[in-house]
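Report of the visiting student (M.T.), summer placement. My assignment was to run the structure pipeline on a short list of targets and document each run. The first record concerns DUF3100 domain-containing protein.
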Amino acid sequence: MKNFKLHFLVLILVVISEFINTITIPIGAGSIVLLPMLFAMIFGVLITPKFLKIANEKDMDDAGSLIGLTLMLLMAKYGTNIGPTLPLIVKSSPALILQEFGNIGTVLLGVPIGVMIGLKREVIGGAHSISREPNVALIGEKFGLDSPEGQGVLGVYIVGTVFGTPFIGVLASFLAAYTPLHPYALAMASGVGSASMMTAGVGTLTAAYPQMEEMITAFGASSNMLSGLDGVYMSIWIALPLAEWMYRKCYRIKYGELPPPVVYSDNLSNEGDEQ
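After the run finished, the structure tokens were exported:
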């Protein structure tokens, strides 16, 4: 909290981003909405190269430690929207719960592509989920973060931190403009277990549908909360075993043999069966 340079840099970036304000780009029947949050993230990335000597390693470490605090305030604000809309959210609870099975899509899409481009067991850690903090902890506990699986989950975590938020924001805007999906459904889909990604998606949707702002933020926050609660269990019981099974299948298809056995950090051996 004593890093005044960091707070000054953040203040400048926020002022510049708010000055740019929301940019709406009409495309066909719809539009792409670019929020100030997106510009702030882009500017933040641009000031981090070492040769610019603007933000150093300590600044970035300090900024990372403050993310949790700021997101707590943000989630408290979203929580005030959940209460008044709770009856409707309860009615929609089956949809909120079932949408968690959409996380399996990362396995079904990511594992085959990862093996095809030459990844080995890194693809299990990287493709079993969206690789947020709980998933990093899960892979670290099961395989160790110095393992190929650990390298995979950390790689996706870093990429998601840098590019995930602006990607979700632009994707939500595109889907709202060019698909028949309801804004509430898109709000639920934005709650992937990352507060920053959810905020980007919800912010874009509320900019496009200001008359639905209360319900959109409530559905997004509720979905994100449920993703945080049951996402780990989904990974443990379904996504991670499925990722390992698909990895063996895809590896055998590409290389004509089963992957070599692996010894985990707990000294248990995975022999890679022929299933």
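The two ends are 53 Å apart (CA to CA). The beta strands are 23-27, 30-34, 262-263, 269-270. I thank the supervising group for their guidance throughout the placement.
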